[in-house]
Amino acid sequence: MQVVDKLQSGSKSKREHWRTELPTTGLGVGVIEEMKDVKSNDADWKGKCSGTVYIGGSESEGHFSLINEASSMFAHTNPLHLDVFQSVARFEAEVVAMTADLLGSKEKASGGQVCGNMTSGGTESILLAVKTSRDYMKAKKGITRPEMIIAESAHSAYDKAAQYFNIKLRRVPVNKEFKADVKAIRKQINRKTILIVGSAPGYPHGIIDPIEELGKLADSYGICLHVDLCLGGFVLPFARKLGYPIPPFDFTVRGVTSISADVHKYGLAPKGTSVVLYRNHDIRKVSNITEWSGGLYVSPTIAGSRPGGVIAGAWAAMMSLGQQGSKIPFYCTMPEASKLSSTLLLGEHKKNHGSIEDDSERVRIHFTFSAEFFNIEIYRITAISNGRIKEIPELFIIGNPDMTIVAFGSAVLDIFEVNDIMSGKGWHLNALQRPNSIHICVTLQHVPVVDAFLQDLREAVQTVKENPGPISGGLAPIYGAAGKMPDRGMVQDLLVNYMDGTC
Please, are residues 238 and 374 in contact by the beta-carbon 8 Å criterion? Predict the structure, then answer.
C-alpha cells in the first residue's frame, strides 16, 4: 500500500482545485483563456518524449496547423450518419484504401479483397481484429471456447481483448533475439486456437517478429494471424522501397488475416486515428442489428458515433504529404535551425528536402516531408542513438532493433534510477520490464535534439554510477517493487488503485 500511496500522492494534490460541477455562469469565449492557462502546465514535449508526438516542428505551424484546420472544419461531423456526412464517409474509405495499398492490397498474393475501417487507435484496431477472428473461427470451425497465442512482447491490447471477448490467452516467451518464438507458439496450438499474433515491430524493443514463418504456421493449422503494424504501418512500406532489409510483413504473406496500422503515429495524423484491415469480407464481421425499434443499425467498429474531425484530419495528412511529399514550412529558433541545417539541409538531401529563410530571430524552414526524407531521418537518428548508447559501457541494447525504437538496460546499474535522472532533465522515456529497461521511440521531434539526449543519458548513467540509490520523488523503487512482486494480482490491484485515484 505504500507504493500505491506514493503513486497517488502527486495526483491527489493536483486534483484539489479541479471542478466538480458546472459553473453557475458560463465562461463564454473566456473559456479559451482558461484552457490556455491549464495547458501551460503540460510537460514540454517538444523533442523530449519517446513517441507521443510524431510530427516535426511546433504545434501551431506547418503540418500541425494543416491537420488542425482540417479537423476543425469537420469537428461537428459523425460518420454514423452516412447520408448526412458523405464527405467524411469518403475520407474514411479513402484512408482505408490508401493504407491497404501500402500494405499489399493490390498485390496478387493478397487476394484482392482487403477491406477495413478506421478506429480510435491501435487498441481498438486490435480489439476488432481479435473479435473478428473469434467470430470467423466460430463460423468456420465451430470453436466456442476460443484461445489465442501471443508472444510476451505483444501489446497489452491483446490482454484487454481476451478479457472483453472471453478468450483464453496463452503467452509464450520470446526467443534469444527477442522475437516471437515460432516453435514455442506451435507447441501451444490446439483445437481451440483461433488466432496467433505477430508484431512489426513490437512496441518494447522495436524488433520485427518472423511474420512469414508465423503466416506459414497459421495457414497450416487453418487459424487466423493478426499482424500488429500500429508502429510500422507507415514506416516499413517506405523503408522497404528505399532498400532497407525489411522482412515480409503484410498481406503478401500467406496466412495473414488482419492488420492494424496507426495513422496517428508515423502517418502524422491527428490523435485518435488508426486502421484495421482484413484479408477479405468473409473475415470481417460487423454488428448488424435488425430487430431494434430504433430501426436498422449497422456499426463496423466498437463505437457507434465517431468524431469525423479526426478522420478528416487523417485524410488531410495523407493527401498533403503523399508518396513523394510536399514542402510544408515551420518556424524554429536559430539554434534549432543550426542543428537542423547541419544534419538535414546542408547535406546531400538539401536539394530534395529543404531550404531555409532567415528572418533574424526566427527561421522559416521548408521541409519536404516525403517517404524518403522521413525514413532516412528517423532511421539515421535511430542508428545514431543505437550506436552511441552502445558506447556507454554500463548500458546494453535489447536485441537488434529493426525500426525506430532503441531499448536499453544495464547489468551494473538500476536502469530505473537512470530513467528518474532523465525525467529530472525533462525527458519522458518508457520504462519496460522482462528485462528491466527503458526505450526511446524516435520521431521527427528528436532530429534537432539527439545530441542533447545522448549527452544527458551519459550524465545520468554517471550520476547513478557515482551515487547509486533512488532519488527523492523518483519512481525507481515503485518499478523495482512491482517487478519483484511474485503475486501478479497484487500488481494489478496496485494499478487499479492508482487509476481510481487519478480519474
Answer: yes
54 phi and psi, to 5 degrees? -100, -15
Per-residue confidence at 5, pLDDT binned at 50, 70, 90?
low
- When pLDDT is cut at 50, 70 and 90, the band that residue 326 belongs to is low
98: left (phi over 0), alpha (psi -120 to 50) or beta: alpha
b/e per residue, 78-99, with b = 16+ CB within 10 A? bbbeeeebebbbebbbebbebb
The rounded distance, in Å, linking the Cα atoms of 319 and 321 is 6
With a threshold of 0.85, does the pTM exceed it? yes
Q: Which residue from 101, 441, 117, 444 is spatially nearest to 268, judged by alpha carbons? A: 444
Q: Strand, helix or coil at 226?
A: strand
What fold does the segment set 86-320 form as a domain? Answer: Aspartate Aminotransferase; domain 2 (3.40.640)
Domains 86-320 and 372-494 share a fold: no
| Strand 354-359 relative to strand 327-333, pairing | unpaired
Residues 314 and 265: their CA atoms lie apart, in Å, by 11
What cell was used for 201?
A: 515491430
* Contact (Cβ atoms closer than 8 angstroms) between residue 397 and residue 389: yes
For 372-494, CATH gives 3.90.1150.10
Residue 104 burial (10 A CB sphere; 0-12, 13-18, 19+): buried
Angle at 422 between CA 418 and CA 424, to 5 degrees: 120
Round the CA-based radius of gyration of the chain to a whole number and report it: 24
Buried b (16+ CB within 10 A) or exposed e, 107-126: eeebeeebbbbbbbbbbbbb
